[in-house]
Amino acid sequence: MSVRARLVYERWTDPVAGEILEAGDIDLIKLDLAAADEKSWAALESAHGYQVATRTDVAGHAGGAQWLAGPALVQRCGRLLAVCSAGAGYDVIDVDACTRAGIAVCNNSGPGAEAVAEHALGFMLDLAKKITVADRALRSGPLGDRMALRGSQLLGKTLGVIGLGAIGGRLVELCAPFGMEILVFDPYLEETSARARGARVVPLAELLERSDFVQVTCPLTSETRGLIGGPEFAAMKPTAFFITTARGLVHDEAALLDALISGGIAGAALDVFHEEPPRHDNPLLHLENVLATPHTAGITVEAAHDLAVATATQWQTIFGGGMPARLLNPDVWPRYCDRFHDVFGFRPSATMALEKAAENGGHAR
């Protein structure tokens, strides 16, 4: 008797993911974070795949962090073959622990790029033009001198992008009409690729010193954790703005607060924080020169739908025996294939998913 794939998920960004997967030969199990731990562990311990909950999902639940794909969960859930994050970020997954256990790790870095890049551009325009500052002033009482709300323009300014992936690359395209000079810090980006996008690769120190807008769009990894701290903020222009749609732990919040209060930088726009959602008494939320959103840069109707489709399609590929497009730990592939064969009786290959999809009328197993 053939084994049915079992996939545990906490939520879909759009119901279309469930609709796609329910049409295939996959058992879907919803992880209820409010349920007793025993019930949730029983579900995960029987699962072959896990669509990992986000930090925001688990933040409001006691002991919620245990449902992230860390070493303890990996060790306990011995049947897991693959784990996937909902979007581009994969800091909710311990990639090394998964690789050691023969578990494939995937993300979905493409579908939300437009939404996040537009959000980042919106932050730039808002900070430069003082839109939110002016709105607050207008609502709070007598306006006073309008010239105190004088902003600046993006035209001809210098944009520094830290991490030129799908999001950073799209942001550069969106900024093209403003004739900005584009500087990029990305150790994994070739100079020729940067030039093709109208950008120039520079050391981080030069980017910080010269940029009018510093945009962080890199993933959170061991290399980027704490990348922007006190010395980095001190290197920025006093007229510059710091913007992040990445992950909170890439920058030092205390150092950012000091830079904003002291006038070391002009302002900041933050979609991510060390603690999410941030506490109401987080001092950054009480500064006039700070814009903040609750990790919603990638949440649009269109992005949620496209991300859900991409998520479902990737799980179809995985359980259909194909190599997922967003495999983050390719070194795991040989051992993963052995483990997959032990469960399902056939070895994955790059073409297997397409063949099985054709057999099943368009849906992979």
**Helix fraction by DSSP (H/I, runs of at least 4):** 25-40%
Largest sheet: 7 strands, parallel
Number of distinct beta strands:
12
The largest sheet has its strands arranged as 8-7-6-9-10-11-12
What is the ordering of alpha helices and beta strands? EHEHEHHEHEHHEHEHEHEHEHEEHHH
Rg (CA only)? 22 Å
Strand content: 5-15%
Structural class: alpha/beta
Q: Span from first to last CA?
A: 15 Å
Shape: elongated
Number of helices: 15
Q: Low-confidence spans: pLDDT under 50, at least 5 residues?
A: 353-365
- Output mean pLDDT: 92
Explain briefly what this protein structure is.
With 365 residues, the chain is of the alpha/beta class. It is built from 15 helices and twelve strands.
Structure commentary:
- This protein is of the alpha/beta class and 365 residues long.
- The protein is 38% helix and 13% strand.
- The protein has 15 helices and twelve strands.
- The strands form two sheets. Strands 8-7-6-9-10-11-12 form a seven-stranded parallel β-sheet, with helices on both faces. A five-stranded parallel β-sheet has the order 2-1-3-4-5.
- Helix 8 links the parallel strand 6 and strand 7.
- Helix 1 runs parallel beside helix 13 and helix 6 crosses helix 8.
- The radius of gyration is 22 Å and the shape is elongated.
